[in-house]
Design the sequence.
């Protein structure tokens, strides 16, 4: 982890990571209080991936997301209040309270959408890449998906087509070792999913997905390559979710020693230690940043809690038929 990005950028990255973690902890708390209709898939533990990648993107670049999408939305600059309101099923949410946790999108910040269908983001990212190429702009698309999604046909189809047409897409595999309760090694003979890139003739790299700087560096190279019209890259980020797959899944299928090892590699703790160790930030500055975010999250919750639910008559509005 080399810290030569400048204090401003590093603080911004720490803030985003801490913001995602605090947001997710709050969502879990609200879920436990029965205030969240529908299900949730928390991103806690994987913050370095979304933040490392999105810190290389401009506002007019794009991302596609997954069922585990809150972190991607926040990293790309979507509004916390509207994400939280959507999760609580409120009218002020991104889908007017009718989509919930897995359907958040904000075209104003290039967030093309989360999707509950595993692997469905890959062809959408490929299509956005094609549109960029046809419009001849220098934008890029970052496409987040899991290890499980990399076994879907869409992974092959989208990456192959993006490779052949040299589309500006960064395929980011968040390898957290599990797809629900299915361990990667029981359904794949390759250890590193990035190896699959060679099948499409594009670069593939595996990085420590709990090291935000490592992710940032890998994404920087991939983004530069994509902006120059040299085509896509597959980045595999090895990471781990702190909680179970969804809701209150106790994740009993994960060995206790494994959980312990990964919790010790917590991306936020590691980044904080690095920032303090290299005197980029002092302890009191970090505390100030964290306090500010916790206050912000309280305001976000208040806004969402006080927002109204949609009326029953609105159920058929915004429906395409
Ligand atoms: C096409 C499809 N198949 C199955 C499911 C059920 N499902 C939801 S999440 C999930 C696991 C996804 O695993 P991965 O891609 O590794 O993402 P992670 O949850 O680990 O972030 C599955 C099988 C689904 N939503 N869509
Ligand atoms: Mg997974």
Sequence:
């Amino acid at each position: 982890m080399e810290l030569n990005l400048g204090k401003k950028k590093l603080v911004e990255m720490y803030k985003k990571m801490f913001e995602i973690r605090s947001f997710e902890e709050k969502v879990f708390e609200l879920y436990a209080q029965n205030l969240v209709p529908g299900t949730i898939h928390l991103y806690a533990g994987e913050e370095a991936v979304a933040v490392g990648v999105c810190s290389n993107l401009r506002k007019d670049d794009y991302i596609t997301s997954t069922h585990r999408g809150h972190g991607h939305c926040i990293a790309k600059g979507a509004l916390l209040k509207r994400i939280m309101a959507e999760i609580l099923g409120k009218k002020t949410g991104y889908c007017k309270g009718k989509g919930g946790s897995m359907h958040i999108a904000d075209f104003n910040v290039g967030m093309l959408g989360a999707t509950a269908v595993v692997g469905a983001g890959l062809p959408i990212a490929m299509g956005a890449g094609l549109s960029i190429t046809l419009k001849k702009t220098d934008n890029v698309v970052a496409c987040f998906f899991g290890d499980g999604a990399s076994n879907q046909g869409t992974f092959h189809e989208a990456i192959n087509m993006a490779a052949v047409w040299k589309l500006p897409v960064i395929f980011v595999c968040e390898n957290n070792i599990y797809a629900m309760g299915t361990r990667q090694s029981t359904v794949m003979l390759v250890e590193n999913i990035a190896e699959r890139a060679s099948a499409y003739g594009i670069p593939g790299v595996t990085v420590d997905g709990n090291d935000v700087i490592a992710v940032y560096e890998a994404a920087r190279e991939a983004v530069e390559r994509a902006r120059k019209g040299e085509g896509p890259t597959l980045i595999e980020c090895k990471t781990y979710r702190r909680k179970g797959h969804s809701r209150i899944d106790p994740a009993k299928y994960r060995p206790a020693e494994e959980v312990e090892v990964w919790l010790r590699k917590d991306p936020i703790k590691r980044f904080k230690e690095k920032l303090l160790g290299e005197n980029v930030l002092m302890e009191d500055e970090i505390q100030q940043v964290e306090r500010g975010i916790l206050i912000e999250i309280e305001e976000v919750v208040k806004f969402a809690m006080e927002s109204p639910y949609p009326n029953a008559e609105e159920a058929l509005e915004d429906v395409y038929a």
Notes: The radius of gyration is 19 Å. Residues 7-310 form a domain with the Rossmann fold fold (CATH 3.40.50.970).
